[in-house]
Batch of 4 targets.
Target 1
Amino acid sequence: MGALIKKIEYYLPEKVLTNSQLQEEFKDCDAKKIEDKIGIRQRHIVQENETALDLAYNASEKNLAGYDRSKIDFLILCTQSPDYYLPTSSCILQHKLNLKTDIGAFDFNLGCSGFVYGLALAKSLLNSNIANSILLIMSETYSKHINPKDKANRSIFGDAAATAIIEKSEDEGVFEFSLGTDGSGYKNLIIPNGGLRKRYDINARNIDDGQGTIRTENDLYMNGPEMLNFMIESVPKVVLNVLKKNKTTLDELDYVIFHQANGYIIEYLRKKIKIPKDKFYTNLLYTGNTVSASIPIAIKDCLDNKIIRQGNKILIVGFGVGYSWGGTIIKI
């Protein structure tokens, strides 16, 4: 028995933040330079009263339309923006989606590698006969973690949710994985305060990076140069490992989709790994970096635009906060 991705849908919040709006807020910000450098023109941002759980619900309802929701017997939600410490958002989501109660559900906390890890979890549950039809959800609202005066991260990240229905199948549609972790880099993409080690500090002082970006220890911090070094080191290796484990080559694959970190990074990686441009997808222009949702959003856009078709084999690779990375090959 195998695992097959049956359906993919995604949901973007209605509010849009454009580069032109950022230019109005920050005097030294140039809308065109942002787009030219990182390939992003706009991104969708949640309202104050809108959460990752709301996005997950909307994306799930889109995916369950026309699908017998009574078949869903496991729900997995990847998010780093939960509504509550406890209970898990997946339990609340089961109720809101009116799914049956003899169903497994859990959240897991990963960022940009989340979709690949979610597929690995789903495949394991299907192969062990614990589940037959899984609703896998990626939902993220990094905008809530970013300081309003942090122009760099506000230009990169957008909010979104994406869902995939994964079923047990006679044909294999999710192949061998290569996964990796290196916690030595945890401080390079982090929200220092707000957890149980360092509580949210209402009096946290402003930290100015000297380039017009201000944050506090309560906000998301990203060390861009160190994250770039990590990606340059890890992504080529995981691509080689996935190809080796699946006894295939880039020439034998139909398409390659990386986590949509930013246009500069993924184009650099494409050239370094020597992936043909006509086999490589970039779709940050209107969404920005949507963290764990970026790969399924890209897959759905490729399907809708007939860039990939049924039966195609696609290499997918996620990488980011943790450090965490992973890759696999899927057949649509």
Target 2
Amino acid sequence: MRKLRGIAWLLLLCPALLSSQSRVFYASGSVDEPPRRLSGPPVDYPRSLLRRHVQGFVQLAAIVDTTGRVEPASVEVLSTPDSGLNDAVEQMMLASQFSVGRLKGAAVRVMVQMGVDVRPPRLSATELVRSARAHLAAGRSDSALTLLDLALDSALAHPTDGERSYALLVRGSAASRAGRDSAGRADLSEGLALYQGLTARGVDLAPFLRRLADSIRLARRGRNAPGPAMPAPTAVEAVDVQPVLVSHPPIRYPAEMQALRIDGTVEVEAALDTTGHVESASAHIVQSPNHAFDAEALRVVRGSVYRPARRQGRPVRAVIRQALGFVNY
């Protein structure tokens, strides 16, 4: 948080001195009618801050001239929760109309201080998914995935179960197109499971969601490819959104185990940071059918990339359990 500085601080200390200068302005408390904001646009919340859920009061000072407009050079941010909000708040002030400050009936220049409560807008999950599908149709998978992540953010878009199913199915398709097969399969499976649960409860779903779910289900039935080598991970502690496996190195079946026709599942525990990468030193074996599998299991998990776990809409560090199946691929 920034301290009061510059002309705002000086004005608080000695308004009479400032009002004696050639370009006179007054503190709002020293005039008969201080300016009031009459109209103007809302703060245009920066999209770059949406995923971080930045919010809070931006305190600023500015001089309102004798026409009720803010003088651009006078705007000064006094405190802010994040500097990324400053430009948006300043633009709102410059576009606003204030009543004219008056002293003994005469219009005068007045310095005002304001606290602006800035919060992320509530987004429409359905509109975000529709936009994402348009981006996908134009071949822009990365921007589509960004929109879909926003649609699934419970703190920003508040998706219903139907909207969540819709977003997961589209994100699964987008991830597959972007070459993130494991993440795509996980999203498609979760989206179809949610869709089937809704239909089983008799929930009336939008026709476009029914068509999408049916087409994905039929396409998956037509594939003969095996399932993922690594099932979905599980966070050890409570999180709102479980981590999702995005990619992993090829699993190399130990030659001696393959020769002996020994298979099994190894369970590894490891810590994921907020970017979805494994903290290498944290990985250790929890359960193993044969220690000959252990080194390979640790190598694969340490080289895997995940979509991080989320709590209250934010990515968080989490300890996960990751199973690894060793079969003849």
Target 3
Amino acid sequence: PGDEGYASSWPQALRGAQALTGPVRRIDLSVLYEVARLLYDGPWVAERYAVMQPLLEARPEAVDAVVKRVVEAARAHDAAAAFRAQYRLRELAREAAAIWREVDVLMLPTAPACPTRAAVAAEPIARNSELGRYTNFVNLLGWAALALPAGFTERGLPFGVTFIAPGGSDAALAELGAHWQAQRRLPLGAHLGDASDDEFTLTSRIAAEPTLPLAVVGAHLEGLPLHGQLVERRCTLRERTRTAPRYRLHALPGTQPPKPGLARVDGGGSAIEVEVYDMPQAELGSFLALIPPPLGLGSIELVSGEWVKGFICEPWALRDAPDISTHGGWRAYLGAQ
């Protein structure tokens, strides 16, 4: 029961996502639905019962009848059931984590329908369970989610989507949400009018955890052999840009996979293509351990004048390394071979 216009609103939201983020794909959500069933059919309701037990025993008439029915279902679960559910949740969480090897973020309807008051009154538990169909698994998995407006149905009812990402992705979701709202250009509310550009813009970057901006210049660029090392460490792309015009790029002989070496020069430098990623500081140590000589991390000046950490090369390794600076970057050099 609810507004059938939600079904026709979803394709429009998908088109908006594709315009904002690039290609989208469908994935199997069955493991997430199983996690959600644990929330409603498992022993987690006992946590609510533990809080409400004194009131239920002393003044049961003070509790809403529907809430009382839901919470008292905890009496059907014992300690063994709680442990079994925890073990099952860990199994499902491992399966669900595989989703993030396929996609960066999930977009789902915030709710499958907008039920009428009469429908809720007739079957309140069923209707509320349906409303959480696409989100009930988020808390149990410890993931991050952000609900956003997406438009209106033909009947004028609001339709929304929820972006879901791994735990700790709150900052990235906030930035994605700001871009989404700027793209949709929806009014702030029925009586608040349209939003200004300033209201669609985040005035500062939000940090969910301490990060370090890291410029990569070679095999760690997106689509190249070592980019997976950044993905494994939960790095997020900050920008594609160039160095200040004070660098030379060389093709290092005998490296596998092939790698370039970047060096700052006093004169005759070029602006070299780089990608700047935000790397969680907690991941930096394991990343450093993977960097072979003659490469290392140092400070690099970007074309904007900002200094960030990035890949540099020891001078001795550049003596017999061809200078490929005229290509403007490692990707262009590979494409010319």
Target 4
Amino acid sequence: MSQSERVLKVAIIGGGMFFDDIIGQSFKDFIRGGIAGSLTSIGMSHLAADVADVKIDVCAVGTRSESSGTAGRIVQWFSDDFPDHAIEACYGDAVWKDILARHKPDVLFVATPDNVHTQPILDAIEAGADVITEKPLCLSLSEADDIIARAKAAGRIVAVDMHKRYDPFIREMMLKAPQQYGTINRVRAVLEEPLEVSTEIFAWAEESNPFAYVGCHWLDVVHHYMGVKPVSVFATGQKNLLLNWDQHHAEIASRRSVAPTSFKRTGSINTWDSIDVAVTYDNGMRGDYNNNWINPAEFEGAVNQEIELYGIYGRGLVDQQERGYREAVIGDGSRT
């Protein structure tokens, strides 16, 4: 960070599904007004004064394929709002290496596919940069251990975007749970992504799975607010629809009255339809996490997300189709 003016140089790699609506919009807000104004929504407004003068400078955007032109499109998208702000569009299979060497960012923001998180994170640590990565951190325990060890040794920060813990309804329910619901016996959490994610949007679906992709959100919420640690894990997965997509896409096309050729992928997709994980925690609590990425487009919401706590004095449920939560508490009634 430049100390004379307190500017954080940020480079971004990846520009997929959520860039325009979420990641890019967030960085536009940061360029306009820094990060202080964003701290209220995550319960950190007490730190706003300390960072009020810190400016954010997005210096580069990197994606893999120059032929697709994604980085250039994103840079132009930024330029529409900030014509005087110079951002370089970079390309390459390991585009972060070039960005780290030439731009020397303070922070590398990693928004690449799940299976392309580890190496850019490690390279950024070695280059002396801090990291913010989209979830999941990585796809194996050995990779996680390596990232943590290297970050500690280098004195660098590696943060994961676990934004669901800051959802206002989830935050309110989780903070009040110990007093309202008493000891929690069980947590049930569901996160189901639309079918188009695994069949149309993510070319890399076979390199990941629905639990790694979205299940980590609910794990983070439970671990963050309840301070529990797992002592046993049992998981089952199902491979029916996607593994046999070469057959099932024709049936889905028929049900929707569209041509089978209208699907982006028509061959077998060797990944899990769904994964169900049961966790026993060190306080005896049970956690059940159900995740898939085959939810029909006909479902009432874009994504099916819910978390429910079962306590000895009451229970609470956040169902994000309803954008709120409902609860029933002994002696205090039921409310939505």
